[in-house]
Amino acid sequence: MGKWWQEEVVYQIYPRSFQDSNGDGIGDIPGIISRLDEIKALGVGIIWLSPVYKSPDADNGYDISDYMDINPKFGTMADMERLFKEAKARGIRIIMDLVINHTSDEHKWFQESRDKDSPYRDYYIWRPGRMGGKLPPNNWTGFFMGSTWEYDEKSGEYYLHLFDKKQPDLNYHNPKVLNEVKEILRFWLDKGAAGFRCDVINVIYKTSLKDGKPAIAIRGLEHYKSQEGNHRILKELRKDVLSKYDCFTVGETVMVDLDEAKMLCEPEREELDMVFYFDHLEVDRRVARYVPKKFKAKKLLEVLAKWQRGLSWNAVYLENHDQPRIVSHYGDEGKYWARSAKMLATLLLTLKGTPYIYQGQEIGMTNFDYPDMSSLDDVESKNVYKLMRKLQIPAKTAWDWIRMSSRDNARTPMQWSQEEGAGFTTGTPWLPINGNYKEINYQDQHEVNGSVYRFYQRMIAFRAGNETLKYGEFVPLFGDDDTIVYAREGGGEHLVVALNFSPEQKEIPLEGEVLISNTGRSEYDGKLGPYESIVMRH
Protein backbone atom coordinates (compact mmCIF):
# COMPACT_ATOMS: atom_id res chain seq x y z
CA MET A 1 0.00 0.00 0.00
CA GLY A 2 1.27 3.41 -0.94
CA LYS A 3 0.04 6.87 -0.06
CA TRP A 4 -3.59 7.67 -0.85
CA TRP A 5 -2.66 9.73 -3.90
CA GLN A 6 -0.76 6.76 -5.33
CA GLU A 7 -3.83 4.55 -5.03
CA GLU A 8 -6.32 6.84 -6.77
CA VAL A 9 -7.07 8.05 -10.31
CA VAL A 10 -7.38 11.83 -10.83
CA TYR A 11 -10.06 13.49 -12.98
CA GLN A 12 -9.24 16.97 -14.26
CA ILE A 13 -12.09 19.45 -14.58
CA TYR A 14 -11.75 22.58 -16.70
CA PRO A 15 -14.65 24.43 -15.06
CA ARG A 16 -15.77 26.75 -17.85
CA SER A 17 -16.24 23.77 -20.19
CA PHE A 18 -17.61 21.09 -17.83
CA GLN A 19 -21.24 21.86 -16.91
CA ASP A 20 -23.21 25.10 -17.05
CA SER A 21 -26.00 25.31 -14.46
CA ASN A 22 -27.52 28.72 -15.25
CA GLY A 23 -27.63 28.98 -19.05
CA ASP A 24 -24.96 31.66 -19.47
CA GLY A 25 -22.81 29.36 -21.63
CA ILE A 26 -20.03 29.07 -19.05
CA GLY A 27 -19.49 26.02 -16.87
CA ASP A 28 -19.65 26.69 -13.14
CA ILE A 29 -19.24 25.20 -9.66
CA PRO A 30 -22.95 24.30 -9.17
CA GLY A 31 -22.65 22.47 -12.51
CA ILE A 32 -19.70 20.47 -11.20
CA ILE A 33 -21.65 19.59 -8.03
CA SER A 34 -24.52 18.31 -10.20
CA ARG A 35 -22.11 15.86 -11.92
CA LEU A 36 -20.26 14.48 -8.89
CA ASP A 37 -22.18 11.21 -9.04
CA GLU A 38 -21.05 10.69 -12.64
CA ILE A 39 -17.45 11.36 -11.64
CA LYS A 40 -17.72 8.94 -8.73
CA ALA A 41 -19.24 6.25 -10.97
CA LEU A 42 -16.22 6.40 -13.27
CA GLY A 43 -14.10 5.16 -10.38
CA VAL A 44 -11.89 8.17 -9.70
CA GLY A 45 -11.09 9.45 -6.21
CA ILE A 46 -9.50 12.84 -6.85
CA ILE A 47 -10.59 15.90 -8.83
CA TRP A 48 -8.02 18.38 -10.09
CA LEU A 49 -9.90 21.64 -10.50
CA SER A 50 -8.45 24.15 -12.97
CA PRO A 51 -8.57 27.76 -11.68
CA VAL A 52 -11.88 29.06 -10.29
CA TYR A 53 -10.34 32.12 -8.63
CA LYS A 54 -11.33 35.70 -9.39
CA SER A 55 -9.81 36.65 -12.75
CA PRO A 56 -10.33 38.97 -15.71
CA ASP A 57 -9.78 35.86 -17.90
CA ALA A 58 -7.02 37.11 -20.18
CA ASP A 59 -5.72 33.52 -20.04
CA ASN A 60 -8.86 31.68 -18.94
CA GLY A 61 -8.29 31.97 -15.22
CA TYR A 62 -4.53 31.55 -15.15
CA ASP A 63 -4.35 35.31 -14.56
CA ILE A 64 -5.58 35.61 -10.97
CA SER A 65 -6.76 38.90 -9.47
CA ASP A 66 -7.71 37.44 -6.07
CA TYR A 67 -6.48 34.05 -4.84
CA MET A 68 -8.97 33.96 -1.96
CA ASP A 69 -12.14 34.69 -3.91
CA ILE A 70 -14.15 32.91 -6.61
CA ASN A 71 -14.74 34.16 -10.16
CA PRO A 72 -18.43 35.22 -10.21
CA LYS A 73 -18.76 33.43 -13.56
CA PHE A 74 -18.22 30.17 -11.67
CA GLY A 75 -20.24 30.94 -8.54
CA THR A 76 -19.52 32.00 -4.97
CA MET A 77 -17.29 30.93 -2.11
CA ALA A 78 -20.37 29.28 -0.59
CA ASP A 79 -20.65 27.20 -3.80
CA MET A 80 -16.98 26.24 -3.49
CA GLU A 81 -17.42 25.21 0.14
CA ARG A 82 -20.42 23.10 -0.88
CA LEU A 83 -18.34 21.45 -3.60
CA PHE A 84 -15.72 20.42 -1.03
CA LYS A 85 -18.46 19.07 1.23
CA GLU A 86 -20.36 17.18 -1.49
CA ALA A 87 -17.18 15.70 -2.94
CA LYS A 88 -16.02 14.56 0.49
CA ALA A 89 -19.39 12.87 1.08
CA ARG A 90 -18.65 10.76 -2.03
CA GLY A 91 -15.09 9.95 -1.01
CA ILE A 92 -13.62 12.35 -3.55
CA ARG A 93 -10.78 14.71 -2.70
CA ILE A 94 -10.13 17.97 -4.60
CA ILE A 95 -6.80 19.53 -5.52
CA MET A 96 -6.65 23.15 -6.61
CA ASP A 97 -4.62 24.81 -9.35
CA LEU A 98 -1.83 26.93 -7.84
CA VAL A 99 -0.64 29.71 -10.15
CA ILE A 100 2.21 31.53 -8.41
CA ASN A 101 4.65 32.47 -11.16
CA HIS A 102 2.45 35.46 -11.95
CA THR A 103 -0.77 37.22 -10.99
CA SER A 104 -3.19 39.22 -13.09
CA ASP A 105 -2.22 42.83 -13.77
CA GLU A 106 -5.59 43.58 -12.14
CA HIS A 107 -4.51 42.07 -8.80
CA LYS A 108 -4.39 44.70 -6.05
CA TRP A 109 -0.71 43.90 -5.43
CA PHE A 110 0.18 44.82 -9.00
CA GLN A 111 -2.01 47.90 -9.13
CA GLU A 112 -0.32 49.12 -5.93
CA SER A 113 3.13 48.22 -7.28
CA ARG A 114 2.78 50.67 -10.16
CA ASP A 115 3.57 53.37 -7.61
CA LYS A 116 7.36 53.38 -7.10
CA ASP A 117 6.93 54.26 -3.43
CA SER A 118 4.44 51.49 -2.70
CA PRO A 119 5.36 48.63 -0.30
CA TYR A 120 4.13 46.34 -3.10
CA ARG A 121 6.61 47.70 -5.66
CA ASP A 122 9.03 44.86 -4.97
CA TYR A 123 6.33 42.18 -5.29
CA TYR A 124 7.00 42.30 -9.05
CA ILE A 125 10.05 42.68 -11.28
CA TRP A 126 10.28 46.31 -12.40
CA ARG A 127 13.25 47.69 -14.35
CA PRO A 128 14.05 50.84 -16.33
CA GLY A 129 14.48 50.41 -20.05
CA ARG A 130 17.77 50.53 -21.92
CA MET A 131 18.83 53.25 -24.38
CA GLY A 132 17.10 55.93 -22.36
CA GLY A 133 14.03 53.79 -21.85
CA LYS A 134 13.46 53.04 -25.54
CA LEU A 135 14.42 49.36 -25.32
CA PRO A 136 13.28 46.65 -22.84
CA PRO A 137 15.64 45.79 -19.95
CA ASN A 138 16.85 42.60 -21.68
CA ASN A 139 16.32 40.48 -24.81
CA TRP A 140 14.15 37.74 -23.28
CA THR A 141 11.25 36.31 -25.29
CA GLY A 142 8.19 34.72 -23.67
CA PHE A 143 6.11 31.57 -23.87
CA PHE A 144 3.31 33.39 -25.72
CA MET A 145 5.84 34.86 -28.21
CA GLY A 146 7.33 38.37 -28.25
CA SER A 147 9.15 40.31 -25.53
CA THR A 148 8.72 39.48 -21.85
CA TRP A 149 8.68 43.18 -20.93
CA GLU A 150 5.79 45.64 -20.94
CA TYR A 151 6.20 49.38 -20.43
CA ASP A 152 3.90 50.97 -17.87
CA GLU A 153 3.21 54.68 -18.35
CA LYS A 154 2.32 55.30 -14.72
CA SER A 155 5.56 53.74 -13.47
CA GLY A 156 7.86 54.91 -16.19
CA GLU A 157 9.41 51.42 -16.12
CA TYR A 158 8.97 47.96 -17.58
CA TYR A 159 7.62 44.89 -15.75
CA LEU A 160 8.52 41.27 -16.51
CA HIS A 161 5.95 38.77 -17.80
CA LEU A 162 7.04 35.35 -19.08
CA PHE A 163 3.51 34.79 -20.35
CA ASP A 164 0.83 37.29 -21.43
CA LYS A 165 1.37 40.99 -20.69
CA LYS A 166 -1.63 40.77 -18.34
CA GLN A 167 0.29 38.18 -16.28
CA PRO A 168 3.13 40.05 -14.49
CA ASP A 169 5.69 37.77 -12.81
CA LEU A 170 6.07 37.79 -9.04
CA ASN A 171 9.45 38.60 -7.50
CA TYR A 172 10.64 35.75 -5.26
CA HIS A 173 13.74 37.67 -4.22
CA ASN A 174 11.27 39.42 -1.92
CA PRO A 175 10.48 37.11 1.07
CA LYS A 176 7.13 38.85 1.55
CA VAL A 177 5.92 37.30 -1.71
CA LEU A 178 6.62 33.77 -0.46
CA ASN A 179 4.84 34.56 2.81
CA GLU A 180 1.78 35.65 0.81
CA VAL A 181 1.88 32.32 -1.07
CA LYS A 182 2.04 30.40 2.22
CA GLU A 183 -1.13 32.17 3.34
CA ILE A 184 -2.85 31.23 0.07
CA LEU A 185 -1.90 27.57 0.58
CA ARG A 186 -3.15 27.56 4.17
CA PHE A 187 -6.39 29.26 3.17
CA TRP A 188 -7.33 26.54 0.68
CA LEU A 189 -6.01 23.60 2.69
CA ASP A 190 -8.11 24.78 5.64
CA LYS A 191 -11.14 25.01 3.30
CA GLY A 192 -10.69 21.36 2.40
CA ALA A 193 -8.28 21.21 -0.54
CA ALA A 194 -6.20 18.00 -0.63
CA GLY A 195 -3.28 19.49 -2.52
CA PHE A 196 -2.25 21.53 -5.52
CA ARG A 197 -1.34 21.24 -9.16
CA CYS A 198 1.42 23.83 -9.42
CA ASP A 199 1.45 25.81 -12.66
CA VAL A 200 4.79 26.29 -14.52
CA ILE A 201 6.42 25.65 -11.16
CA ASN A 202 10.05 25.32 -12.28
CA VAL A 203 10.36 28.86 -13.70
CA ILE A 204 9.20 30.98 -10.76
CA TYR A 205 12.65 32.12 -9.55
CA LYS A 206 14.71 34.45 -11.76
CA THR A 207 18.38 34.17 -10.79
CA SER A 208 19.50 36.90 -13.15
CA LEU A 209 18.05 39.38 -15.64
CA LYS A 210 21.02 39.23 -18.00
CA ASP A 211 20.44 38.90 -21.74
CA GLY A 212 19.59 35.40 -22.91
CA LYS A 213 21.64 33.29 -25.29
CA PRO A 214 20.46 33.12 -28.93
CA ALA A 215 17.45 30.77 -29.23
CA ILE A 216 14.90 29.82 -31.87
CA ALA A 217 11.90 30.55 -29.66
CA ILE A 218 12.43 31.36 -25.99
CA ARG A 219 15.44 33.49 -25.02
CA GLY A 220 16.52 33.81 -21.39
CA LEU A 221 15.53 30.32 -20.16
CA GLU A 222 18.98 29.69 -18.69
CA HIS A 223 18.38 32.47 -16.16
CA TYR A 224 15.16 31.09 -14.68
CA LYS A 225 14.46 27.44 -15.60
CA SER A 226 14.93 25.03 -12.67
CA GLN A 227 17.16 27.35 -10.66
CA GLU A 228 18.54 26.65 -7.18
CA GLY A 229 16.36 29.47 -5.83
CA ASN A 230 13.34 27.62 -7.20
CA HIS A 231 14.27 24.54 -5.14
CA ARG A 232 14.66 26.66 -2.00
CA ILE A 233 11.14 28.01 -2.46
CA LEU A 234 9.59 24.55 -2.90
CA LYS A 235 11.44 23.17 0.13
CA GLU A 236 10.24 26.08 2.25
CA LEU A 237 6.61 25.67 1.13
CA ARG A 238 6.80 21.95 1.96
CA LYS A 239 8.44 22.50 5.36
CA ASP A 240 6.35 25.43 6.56
CA VAL A 241 2.93 24.56 5.13
CA LEU A 242 2.38 21.39 3.09
CA SER A 243 3.98 19.01 5.61
CA LYS A 244 1.36 20.07 8.16
CA TYR A 245 -1.50 18.68 6.04
CA ASP A 246 -2.43 15.33 4.47
CA CYS A 247 -1.99 16.60 0.92
CA PHE A 248 0.09 16.21 -2.23
CA THR A 249 1.54 18.39 -4.98
CA VAL A 250 2.06 17.79 -8.67
CA GLY A 251 4.10 20.30 -10.64
CA GLU A 252 3.66 21.32 -14.24
CA THR A 253 7.24 21.74 -15.44
CA VAL A 254 8.52 23.75 -18.39
CA MET A 255 10.98 21.97 -20.72
CA VAL A 256 12.20 19.81 -17.87
CA ASP A 257 14.63 16.93 -18.42
CA LEU A 258 14.87 13.81 -16.27
CA ASP A 259 17.69 15.07 -14.05
CA GLU A 260 15.82 18.33 -13.39
CA ALA A 261 12.64 16.37 -12.63
CA LYS A 262 14.47 14.21 -10.09
CA MET A 263 15.64 17.36 -8.33
CA LEU A 264 12.01 18.53 -8.13
CA CYS A 265 10.18 15.40 -7.01
CA GLU A 266 12.34 12.61 -5.65
CA PRO A 267 11.08 11.91 -2.08
CA GLU A 268 14.33 12.73 -0.31
CA ARG A 269 14.29 16.23 -1.88
CA GLU A 270 11.08 17.13 0.00
CA GLU A 271 9.82 19.46 -2.70
CA LEU A 272 7.01 18.19 -4.99
CA ASP A 273 5.43 14.72 -4.96
CA MET A 274 5.37 14.29 -8.73
CA VAL A 275 5.71 16.30 -11.94
CA PHE A 276 4.06 16.58 -15.34
CA TYR A 277 6.52 16.37 -18.22
CA PHE A 278 5.75 16.55 -21.93
CA ASP A 279 8.25 14.33 -23.78
CA HIS A 280 5.81 11.45 -24.34
CA LEU A 281 3.36 13.75 -26.17
CA GLU A 282 6.05 15.25 -28.40
CA VAL A 283 7.55 12.17 -30.09
CA ASP A 284 5.81 13.28 -33.32
CA ARG A 285 6.64 16.99 -32.91
CA ARG A 286 9.65 19.08 -33.89
CA VAL A 287 10.97 21.75 -31.48
CA ALA A 288 7.48 22.86 -30.38
CA ARG A 289 4.20 20.94 -30.36
CA TYR A 290 2.93 22.93 -33.35
CA VAL A 291 5.36 21.46 -35.94
CA PRO A 292 4.66 17.79 -36.77
CA LYS A 293 6.86 14.87 -37.76
CA LYS A 294 6.13 11.15 -38.30
CA PHE A 295 4.98 9.16 -35.25
CA LYS A 296 7.01 6.08 -34.35
CA ALA A 297 5.74 3.87 -31.52
CA LYS A 298 9.27 2.72 -30.68
CA LYS A 299 10.23 6.31 -29.85
CA LEU A 300 7.21 6.59 -27.55
CA LEU A 301 8.29 3.43 -25.72
CA GLU A 302 11.83 4.82 -25.29
CA VAL A 303 10.48 8.04 -23.77
CA LEU A 304 8.04 6.20 -21.50
CA ALA A 305 10.76 3.83 -20.32
CA LYS A 306 13.11 6.72 -19.53
CA TRP A 307 10.58 8.42 -17.27
CA GLN A 308 8.91 5.31 -15.84
CA ARG A 309 12.25 3.91 -14.75
CA GLY A 310 13.90 7.25 -13.99
CA LEU A 311 11.50 8.64 -11.37
CA SER A 312 10.32 7.04 -8.13
CA TRP A 313 6.75 8.07 -8.94
CA ASN A 314 5.18 9.41 -12.14
CA ALA A 315 2.22 11.65 -12.92
CA VAL A 316 0.75 9.68 -15.83
CA TYR A 317 -1.42 11.52 -18.35
CA LEU A 318 -2.28 11.73 -22.06
CA GLU A 319 -4.55 14.81 -22.03
CA ASN A 320 -5.03 18.05 -20.18
CA HIS A 321 -6.39 21.55 -20.85
CA ASP A 322 -3.24 22.50 -22.81
CA GLN A 323 -2.95 19.41 -25.03
CA PRO A 324 -4.88 18.15 -28.07
CA ARG A 325 -7.25 15.22 -27.60
CA ILE A 326 -5.23 12.01 -27.48
CA VAL A 327 -7.53 10.02 -29.78
CA SER A 328 -6.94 12.70 -32.44
CA HIS A 329 -3.22 12.76 -31.68
CA TYR A 330 -2.12 9.12 -31.34
CA GLY A 331 -5.36 7.38 -32.30
CA ASP A 332 -7.87 7.43 -35.16
CA GLU A 333 -10.87 9.77 -35.42
CA GLY A 334 -12.50 7.64 -38.12
CA LYS A 335 -13.09 3.91 -38.56
CA TYR A 336 -11.15 2.92 -35.45
CA TRP A 337 -12.19 5.83 -33.21
CA ALA A 338 -13.64 3.70 -30.38
CA ARG A 339 -11.01 1.01 -30.56
CA SER A 340 -8.10 3.49 -30.56
CA ALA A 341 -9.63 5.46 -27.68
CA LYS A 342 -9.78 2.23 -25.66
CA MET A 343 -6.23 1.28 -26.68
CA LEU A 344 -5.02 4.62 -25.31
CA ALA A 345 -7.00 4.02 -22.10
CA THR A 346 -5.07 0.76 -21.74
CA LEU A 347 -1.79 2.64 -22.14
CA LEU A 348 -2.70 5.29 -19.55
CA LEU A 349 -3.95 2.88 -16.91
CA THR A 350 -1.16 0.29 -17.16
CA LEU A 351 1.71 2.72 -16.56
CA LYS A 352 3.31 3.20 -13.14
CA GLY A 353 2.20 6.35 -11.34
CA THR A 354 -0.92 8.34 -10.54
CA PRO A 355 -3.13 8.44 -13.67
CA TYR A 356 -4.84 11.70 -14.68
CA ILE A 357 -7.92 11.61 -16.91
CA TYR A 358 -9.06 14.86 -18.51
CA GLN A 359 -12.81 15.57 -18.80
CA GLY A 360 -14.21 14.03 -21.98
CA GLN A 361 -11.25 11.70 -22.45
CA GLU A 362 -13.34 8.93 -20.91
CA ILE A 363 -15.85 9.17 -23.78
CA GLY A 364 -13.24 9.62 -26.52
CA MET A 365 -13.81 13.30 -27.27
CA THR A 366 -11.87 14.48 -30.32
CA ASN A 367 -10.17 17.67 -31.45
CA PHE A 368 -12.42 20.55 -32.53
CA ASP A 369 -13.92 20.76 -36.01
CA TYR A 370 -13.62 24.54 -36.45
CA PRO A 371 -13.15 25.84 -40.01
CA ASP A 372 -10.70 28.68 -39.26
CA MET A 373 -9.04 30.90 -36.64
CA SER A 374 -12.17 32.97 -36.03
CA SER A 375 -13.66 30.31 -33.71
CA LEU A 376 -10.60 30.15 -31.45
CA ASP A 377 -10.35 31.75 -28.01
CA ASP A 378 -6.84 30.65 -26.95
CA VAL A 379 -4.34 33.52 -26.66
CA GLU A 380 -1.37 31.20 -27.28
CA SER A 381 -2.84 29.85 -30.54
CA LYS A 382 -3.51 33.36 -31.81
CA ASN A 383 0.01 34.51 -31.03
CA VAL A 384 1.63 31.43 -32.58
CA TYR A 385 -0.48 31.85 -35.72
CA LYS A 386 0.65 35.48 -36.05
CA LEU A 387 4.28 34.40 -35.66
CA MET A 388 3.89 31.68 -38.29
CA ARG A 389 2.46 34.15 -40.77
CA LYS A 390 5.23 36.62 -39.94
CA LEU A 391 7.71 33.85 -40.77
CA GLN A 392 5.88 33.49 -44.12
CA ILE A 393 4.51 30.03 -43.36
CA PRO A 394 1.54 29.65 -45.76
CA ALA A 395 -1.86 30.36 -44.20
CA LYS A 396 -3.16 26.82 -44.88
CA THR A 397 -0.10 25.16 -43.33
CA ALA A 398 -0.23 27.50 -40.32
CA TRP A 399 -3.92 26.72 -39.78
CA ASP A 400 -3.34 22.98 -40.19
CA TRP A 401 -0.66 23.08 -37.49
CA ILE A 402 -2.81 25.20 -35.16
CA ARG A 403 -5.84 22.97 -35.73
CA MET A 404 -3.78 19.92 -34.79
CA SER A 405 -2.19 21.37 -31.64
CA SER A 406 -4.25 24.28 -30.28
CA ARG A 407 -5.09 24.29 -26.59
CA ASP A 408 -8.72 24.92 -27.56
CA ASN A 409 -8.93 21.30 -28.75
CA ALA A 410 -9.26 20.27 -25.11
CA ARG A 411 -11.42 23.21 -24.10
CA THR A 412 -14.53 22.57 -26.21
CA PRO A 413 -17.52 22.00 -23.92
CA MET A 414 -18.10 18.58 -22.40
CA GLN A 415 -20.42 16.45 -24.53
CA TRP A 416 -23.00 15.09 -22.11
CA SER A 417 -25.87 14.25 -24.46
CA GLN A 418 -27.43 14.60 -27.92
CA GLU A 419 -29.55 17.53 -26.75
CA GLU A 420 -29.07 21.01 -28.15
CA GLY A 421 -26.04 22.43 -26.35
CA ALA A 422 -24.73 18.87 -25.82
CA GLY A 423 -26.25 18.83 -22.33
CA PHE A 424 -23.55 21.34 -21.35
CA THR A 425 -25.66 24.50 -21.59
CA THR A 426 -29.09 25.81 -22.54
CA GLY A 427 -27.45 29.04 -23.69
CA THR A 428 -24.72 30.02 -26.16
CA PRO A 429 -21.50 28.20 -25.16
CA TRP A 430 -18.40 30.34 -24.51
CA LEU A 431 -16.51 28.18 -27.04
CA PRO A 432 -18.26 26.35 -29.91
CA ILE A 433 -19.27 22.75 -29.18
CA ASN A 434 -17.70 20.10 -31.38
CA GLY A 435 -20.18 19.12 -34.10
CA ASN A 436 -19.78 15.39 -33.32
CA TYR A 437 -21.57 15.64 -29.94
CA LYS A 438 -24.55 13.67 -31.30
CA GLU A 439 -22.24 10.73 -32.04
CA ILE A 440 -19.86 11.12 -29.07
CA ASN A 441 -21.49 11.86 -25.72
CA TYR A 442 -21.73 10.59 -22.17
CA GLN A 443 -25.44 9.73 -22.24
CA ASP A 444 -25.05 7.32 -25.14
CA GLN A 445 -22.07 5.56 -23.57
CA HIS A 446 -22.45 5.27 -19.82
CA GLU A 447 -24.89 2.34 -19.86
CA VAL A 448 -23.68 0.61 -23.04
CA ASN A 449 -21.42 -2.41 -22.81
CA GLY A 450 -18.46 -2.01 -25.15
CA SER A 451 -18.47 1.80 -25.11
CA VAL A 452 -15.32 3.87 -24.59
CA TYR A 453 -16.71 5.07 -21.24
CA ARG A 454 -17.42 1.55 -20.00
CA PHE A 455 -13.90 0.49 -21.01
CA TYR A 456 -12.37 3.36 -19.02
CA GLN A 457 -14.55 2.34 -16.07
CA ARG A 458 -13.39 -1.27 -16.41
CA MET A 459 -9.70 -0.34 -16.74
CA ILE A 460 -9.86 1.92 -13.66
CA ALA A 461 -11.40 -0.92 -11.64
CA PHE A 462 -8.86 -3.39 -13.04
CA ARG A 463 -5.98 -1.14 -11.99
CA ALA A 464 -7.50 -0.52 -8.55
CA GLY A 465 -7.50 -4.25 -7.85
CA ASN A 466 -4.02 -5.01 -9.16
CA GLU A 467 -0.97 -4.16 -7.04
CA THR A 468 1.42 -4.99 -9.90
CA LEU A 469 -0.14 -2.34 -12.14
CA LYS A 470 0.02 0.22 -9.36
CA TYR A 471 3.48 -0.50 -7.98
CA GLY A 472 5.27 -3.02 -10.19
CA GLU A 473 8.37 -2.16 -12.19
CA PHE A 474 8.08 -1.04 -15.82
CA VAL A 475 10.07 -3.21 -18.25
CA PRO A 476 10.19 -2.28 -21.98
CA LEU A 477 10.15 -5.40 -24.17
CA PHE A 478 9.65 -4.47 -27.83
CA GLY A 479 8.90 -1.53 -30.10
CA ASP A 480 8.74 -0.79 -33.81
CA ASP A 481 7.11 1.93 -35.93
CA ASP A 482 3.58 0.84 -34.97
CA THR A 483 3.62 -1.34 -31.86
CA ILE A 484 4.98 -1.42 -28.34
CA VAL A 485 5.14 -4.17 -25.74
CA TYR A 486 6.12 -3.75 -22.11
CA ALA A 487 5.84 -5.64 -18.85
CA ARG A 488 4.82 -4.70 -15.32
CA GLU A 489 6.52 -6.89 -12.76
CA GLY A 490 6.12 -7.16 -9.00
CA GLY A 491 5.10 -9.49 -6.20
CA GLY A 492 5.78 -12.55 -8.30
CA GLU A 493 3.38 -11.40 -11.04
CA HIS A 494 4.44 -10.70 -14.63
CA LEU A 495 1.94 -8.71 -16.75
CA VAL A 496 2.53 -8.00 -20.44
CA VAL A 497 0.88 -5.07 -22.23
CA ALA A 498 0.83 -4.93 -26.05
CA LEU A 499 -0.46 -1.94 -28.04
CA ASN A 500 -0.93 -1.44 -31.78
CA PHE A 501 -0.98 2.23 -32.88
CA SER A 502 -1.79 1.45 -36.52
CA PRO A 503 -4.80 0.41 -38.67
CA GLU A 504 -2.91 -2.70 -39.82
CA GLN A 505 -2.80 -6.13 -38.21
CA LYS A 506 0.58 -6.96 -36.63
CA GLU A 507 2.18 -10.28 -35.73
CA ILE A 508 3.42 -10.11 -32.14
CA PRO A 509 4.35 -13.49 -30.58
CA LEU A 510 3.11 -13.49 -26.98
CA GLU A 511 2.03 -16.20 -24.57
CA GLY A 512 -0.14 -16.06 -21.51
CA GLU A 513 -3.61 -15.62 -20.09
CA VAL A 514 -5.61 -12.71 -21.51
CA LEU A 515 -6.84 -10.51 -18.66
CA ILE A 516 -8.30 -7.58 -20.57
CA SER A 517 -8.50 -6.50 -24.20
CA ASN A 518 -10.07 -3.53 -25.95
CA THR A 519 -11.65 -5.91 -28.49
CA GLY A 520 -13.13 -8.26 -25.88
CA ARG A 521 -11.13 -11.30 -26.93
CA SER A 522 -10.38 -13.98 -24.33
CA GLU A 523 -7.49 -15.75 -26.12
CA TYR A 524 -4.47 -14.48 -28.06
CA ASP A 525 -3.48 -15.95 -31.44
CA GLY A 526 -0.18 -14.13 -32.01
CA LYS A 527 -1.76 -11.31 -34.03
CA LEU A 528 -2.58 -7.84 -32.78
CA GLY A 529 -5.48 -6.27 -34.68
CA PRO A 530 -5.78 -2.63 -35.79
CA TYR A 531 -5.49 -0.32 -32.74
CA GLU A 532 -5.79 -3.34 -30.48
CA SER A 533 -4.54 -3.46 -26.90
CA ILE A 534 -4.15 -6.49 -24.73
CA VAL A 535 -3.05 -7.16 -21.15
CA MET A 536 -1.84 -10.68 -20.36
CA ARG A 537 -0.54 -12.56 -17.33
CA HIS A 538 2.61 -14.34 -18.47
TrEMBL record:
InterPro entries per record: Beta_galactosidase_C (IPR013739), GH (IPR017853), GH13_cat_dom (IPR006047), Glyco_hydro_b (IPR013780), O16G_dom_2 (IPR045857)
All copies of domain Glycosyl hydrolase family 13 catalytic, residue ranges: 12-411
Pfam families the record matches: Alpha-amylase (PF00128), Glyco_hydro_42C (PF08533)
First and last residue of the signal peptide: none
SMART domains: Aamy (SM00642)
Membrane-crossing residue ranges in chain numbering: none
PANTHER family, per the entry: ALPHA-AMYLASE FAMILY MEMBER, NEUTRAL AND BASIC AMINO ACID TRANSPORT PROTEIN RBAT
Family recorded in the similarity comment: Belongs to the glycosyl hydrolase 13 family.
Name of the protein described by the UniProt record: Alpha-glucosidase
